[in-house]
Inverse folding.
């Protein structure tokens, strides 16, 4: 164990690091340094953790990086925040994100884009881009993010760190400002697998305040960190290695990772997930539909932005026009359309049926294997501005992460290589429902036998 003095200095070193580099990166958008120092004095062994700006922290700005929630300070803590406080963690402010988690690049924030610490001209991934960047750059050792279609795993991959989306229902969503309620899940981002396991330990568990929370046993995830993966069967789905659309350097790193795991003793099995090709279409009906419903509450009546007008309807129109960014408006319109009279059955209901088929594909595959191995992203980090006016191109960034959200299964992304330009590449491992332990075990063994996680950006 570290001495108390050494650990109490961790918060101070984080504050120093944030002060030195955050202006370049725009990863952390709010921090009360005096509050952090007081917390560090009260909790000398507390671990610093930054929080994505869509998770409610009592009396601290929680804006979802949107103008419509400017100056909103929740009167309560999210369940995960209460758990972190009870466990002695030190909260290090709020991390930048895509507005309402709508994006894969951390560019749609009203606070401006977050920059990738490996190349500040590039995106860090999204929507938990601020959380990933803060960890990758050494501003904090760990962070909380949320994952609706890949928003923890994708930025973890593009920023060269570890990110886990737990099983849907493993972590309480109470106090998470909802994007798509049947898909959202809070999870950890960290510099290594052990830290991710420590953070998941702290936030997991049944919560009666969340109707989707599952009352299942929560193991100590750190006990699954064994450097032994013999007898574990890993499925490799052919649908995740298309001839077109997968960057050559990414594909090469994933195939090398597969060989490394095979050398460590895993059994590799070819599997099929036949409905994968419909996942993106399915997701972009379900997620915007649920977002349209969830965002209806942001109208200027009770909190956040309010524009003066002659009557209520005009006030709602002016407030929402000024408060929401382009991508938020796009998703609200798409979602409202697919839920509207005459289209609900043709779109949303059909998408839900396809979702069941995607989930069944995974359940069938897991009869043959324990873990599924895929790329996390189809390509390394792209340049800021490169896809901001190409929504379809942006949506394709999540093509390998979305199916796990539709199926509700856990997934983890770990560093597995670098491009010739020095950009990180992520390996995704998917697991059976509520079997995060096996994912941690495989991820830890891979990490212990490679050096990728030890490389740090020079910033």
């Amino acid at each position: 164990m570290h001495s108390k003095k050494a650990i109490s200095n961790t918060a101070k070193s984080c504050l120093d690091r944030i002060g030195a580099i955050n202006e370049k990166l725009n990863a952390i958008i709010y921090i009360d340094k005096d509050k952090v120092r007081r917390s560090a004095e009260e909790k000398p062994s507390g671990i610093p953790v930054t929080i994505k700006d869509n998770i409610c922290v009592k009396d601290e700005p929680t804006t979802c990086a949107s103008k419509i929630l400017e100056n909103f300070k929740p009167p309560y803590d999210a369940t995960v925040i209460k758990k972190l406080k009870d466990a002695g963690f030190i909260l290090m402010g709020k991390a930048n994100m895509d507005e309402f988690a709508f994006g894969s690049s951390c560019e749609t924030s009203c606070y401006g884009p977050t920059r990738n610490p490996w190349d500040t001209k590039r995106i860090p991934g999204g929507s938990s881009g601020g959380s990933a960047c803060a960890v990758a750059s050494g501003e904090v050792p760990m962070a909380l993010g949320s994952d609706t279609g890949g928003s923890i795993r994708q930025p973890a991959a593009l920023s060269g760190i570890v990110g886990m989306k737990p099983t849907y229902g493993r972590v309480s969503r109470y106090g998470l400002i909802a994007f798509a309620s049947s898909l959202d899940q809070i999870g950890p981002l960290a510099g290594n697998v052990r830290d991710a396991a420590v953070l998941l330990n702290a936030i997991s568990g049944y919560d009666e305040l969340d109707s989707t929370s599952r009352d299942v046993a929560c193991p100590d995830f750190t006990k699954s960190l064994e450097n032994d993966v013999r007898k574990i069967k890993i499925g490799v789905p052919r649908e995740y290695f298309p001839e077109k659309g997968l960057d050559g350097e990414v594909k090469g790193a994933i195939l090398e990772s597969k060989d490394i795991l095979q050398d460590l003793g895993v059994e590799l099995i070819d599997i099929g997930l036949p409905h994968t090709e419909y996942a993106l279409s399915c997701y972009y009906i379900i997620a915007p539909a649920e977002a349209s419903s969830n965002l209806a509450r942001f109208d200027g009546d009770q909190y956040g932005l309010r524009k003066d007008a002659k009557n209520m309807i005009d006030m709602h129109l002016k407030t929402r026009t000024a408060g929401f960014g382009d991508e938020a408006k796009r998703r609200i319109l798409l979602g409202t359309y697919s839920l509207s009279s005459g289209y609900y059955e043709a779109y949303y209901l059909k998408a839900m049926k396809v979702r069941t088929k995607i989930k069944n594909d995974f359940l069938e595959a897991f009869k043959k294997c324990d873990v599924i191995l895929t790329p996390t992203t189809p390509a390394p980090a792209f340049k800021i501005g490169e896809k901001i006016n190409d929504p379809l191109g942006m949506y394709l960034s999540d093509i390998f992460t979305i199916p796990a959200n539709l199926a509700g299964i856990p997934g983890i992304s770990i560093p597995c290589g670098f491009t010739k330009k020095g950009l990180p590449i992520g390996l995704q491992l998917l697991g059976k429902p509520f079997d995060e332990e096996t994912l941690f075990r495989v991820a830890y063994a891979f990490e212990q036998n490679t050096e990728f996680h030890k490389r740090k950006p020079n910033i």
